[in-house]
Amino acid sequence: MKNIYMKQAISLAWKYQFLTYPNPAVGAVVVRDGIVLSCEAHKQSGTPHAEVLALKSAYLKEYPTSLLGELSSSFEIHNFLYENHNDFFKDCEIFVTLEPCNHVGKTPACSNLLCKVGIKKVFIGSLDLNLEASGGIETLRANNIEVEVGIEKELCNNLLLPFTKWQKGNFRFFKLATREDGSCDGGYITSQDSLSLVHEIRARLELLIIGGNTVRTDRPTLDSRFSKSKKACDVLIYSNKTEFDRTIPLFDIQSREVFISNKFEEKEKKFIMIEGGFTLLDNVKNDIDMLMLFVSHKEKVINPFDIRTLGFKKIHSYYINGTDEVVFLLRH
Q1: Contact between residue 259 and residue 234 where contact means Cβ atoms under 8 Å apart
Q2: What is the edge-to-edge ordering of all strands in the sheet holding 271-275?
């Protein structure tokens, strides 16, 4: 069963992949006597980590009218549970896709919280390679909490890949929207839900790369107007030709730099998305770390396009609504 619980945590965390930058996407599940009490994921940098949200949700199941329900900041939740846990978690296990953090930054240390509430056992998928935050396992064991490491390790490492890459240098991924048959022409392909997610991701990027032909043909804006922050990232137009019509909307976004180059001149950017079609993907596929597909299943076909023919393998997917599937792939 422990693998099933960890996979629950992994699946939820993927729904927030890229939205947690510069933090990793992390999921957590709290279980007592074989019953899942909560499943939560870290949602945004500076907000409570997955373990904190999972403990909060589990506690509120038992105490639904508790003041804890009104608390949203990580420090407030930590302090409340320190003082009011009532030994609620003494028979609970928690499954976390990443080693609980062991330092105080924008949020308190999750390892300390797990110790304070007296959790029975902690199951961990991946080790935290960030030296500043690592050490959670040692803290837990020093407080006589049982720890088991490596549950669904490969799946957890796949989830952690973007964080691992941007910790060491930069992470580049390619975003592509297609229909079931593999076509990607003719305007918007997927729904507003997918568009809103893309805009939320753009708001967290340090650089967006797009092909010159797409800019000339589609005359895009490439903003983040459907995101909460509306923040527009810098744009690199990947092109051999440097002349562009400056009335194209993307040039008219405030607080943004637009570069034009026939090279990936990333200027120390760590989180980079490339948007385009199959031609651009074929040109840059050896330079990307991950492919993110938005596949519309609204128009059913007899023989759906097989992305594996491009040399990629699926590592995870989920449906954002009844028609749009989000697929994450790595090169073979």
Answers
A1: yes
A2: 258-261, 234-238, 207-211, 271-275, 171-179, 290-296, 324-331, 312-319
Peptide bond into 22 cis (omega under 30): yes
d(Cα 234, Cα 96) in Å, to the nearest integer? 34
Boundary (domain end) residue, out of 128, 145, 167: 167
Provide the pLDDT for residue 132.
67
The answer to whether 80 and 68 have CB atoms below 8 angstroms apart is: yes
User: Which amino acid does the sequence have at 243?
Assistant: E
Which one from 51, 152, 180, 200 is the annotated catalytic residue?
Answer: 51
Residue that is last in its domain, among 123, 151, 167: 167
Same domain membership, residue 197 and residue 151: no
Whether residue 181 is found in the same domain as residue 100: no
| Helix/strand/coil for 252 | helix
Is-catalytic flag, 148?
no
Tens digit of pLDDT for each residue in 167-177?
889 999 999 99
Question: Which tens digit of pLDDT belongs to each residue from 142-159?
Answer: 999 999 999 999 999 999
